Amino acid sequence: QVQLVESGGGLVPPGGSLRLSCAASGSIASINTMGWYRQAPGKPRVLVATKTSGGNTNYRDSVKGRFTISRDNAKNTVYLQMNSLKPEDTAVYYCNLWDFRSANYWGQGTQVTVSS
Questions:
Q1: Which pLDDT belongs to residue 27?
Q2: Which position among 34, 38, 72, 80 has the lowest Cβ density within 10 Å, counted as fewest Cβ atoms?
Q3: At residue 49, does pLDDT exceed 80?
Q4: Cα–Cα distance, 19 to 10 (Å, whole number)
């Protein structure tokens, strides 16, 4: 069984910053892509940022230049540095992992609220 545990969410004012972390544990064959998705109330879950094992990244257009995804492969951990946060960024953020056997795993989610 694989577990993904997110942390780092919270309440911040507009323009503030947060850093999310997601640590993977358990039996994982080999990690391919790790990333972050988010879901706001009444909205579908959407991609925020992903990073492959080779280092390629992909960002949602609305977060480009503000968010940065990074990985510590030795610790099976992915991070999301979020700067210049906007109220529109308010959502539950979910960590996601794909391994090379095409198994897919999700974290439990961490709440990010941007409000004054």
A1: 78
A2: 72
A3: yes
A4: 10
Q: Which amino acid is at 4?
A: L
Tell whether the torsion through CA atoms of 11, 19, 36 and 100 is positive or negative. Answer: negative
Q: Which of 30-34, 85-89, 107-111 is least confident?
A: 30-34
Tokens of 15: 């323009």
In single-letter form, the type of residue at position 77 comes to T
Whether the Cβ atoms of residue 33 and residue 98 lie closer than 8 Å to each other: yes
Which residue is it, tokens 């577990």? Answer: 3
What is the DSSP track for 30-96?
Answer: -EEEEEEEEE-TTS--EEEEEE-TT--EEE-GGGTTTEEEEEEGGGTEEEEEE-S--GGG-EEEEEE
